[in-house]
């Protein structure tokens, strides 16, 4: 290292570049060589080297390849929103180190792309350079001729409004991973993986990210497990998407916006979770009746304690469950105290 150290007396510099990608290695070599060539005795001169490949083929590097592109002035003007003449556009591009001149009766601009500009891949990169040279602040601002006033997606708006009120109800929001392990959504909740309709990842890198979640409950229970040292009670909620297989859609899967809340304390606190459900329904302006409101009916669920589980029905359709979690589920998530949970789909309230 000391022998090859560059000092002010160095006269010959050999530039070598190694990489796993030949294209990127060529780009790096070209840029390094052109930068050094500026300071050569004869400026911008480079001595090439012959590289012999293992198969016996030889190649001269650096390539320092120039290439030409043709772009129509109308395209540049249209994309940027200006009305410059072809000659002035050529001048703008030349200022950006892209040597340009007008060809063919002014209906085309020929651009020479030097080896130093590996970022120019497509015509849109040339248009961008013209915009930078023109100056973004100099482009006249106009209102588009089409109606493009954006609006928040109604589902997201409802989610945001619910989040505020759930936080006001004393629950803390959690944001958990959309991917989880097969055990989390099946074995730990006492279900079979085939019954969950879960979307699997073909090549998972870790055991934690094998499938897309079909329920928000495991994420919240893992969050509680990671925060067991915190003072009780722990009241968490999350409103996020779950993914289930659906052969009727073009992508073979469908997202549903679910709301899940968990209460963890020395006593199960079923009444707190039930009260939260009533509060959510009050906010959604759904009355507690069977015809056009919501009701809860006793049911059984593999994740819930027998006799302590109820199904939530809104406007005649089942939207989720609430209840006290089964001791086996609590143990599998490394928790030590009773826990009650509620999970409903909020899309029917749109």
UniProtKB/TrEMBL annotation:
GO cellular component terms, A-Z: phenylalanine-tRNA ligase complex
EC category: ligase
Example GO biological process: phenylalanyl-tRNA aminoacylation
Residue intervals passing through the bilayer: none
Keyword presence, Ligase: yes
EC numbers on record: 6.1.1.20
One of the record's GO molecular function terms: RNA binding
Protein name as catalogued: phenylalanine--tRNA ligase
Native source organism of the sequence: Eurypyga helias (Sunbittern)
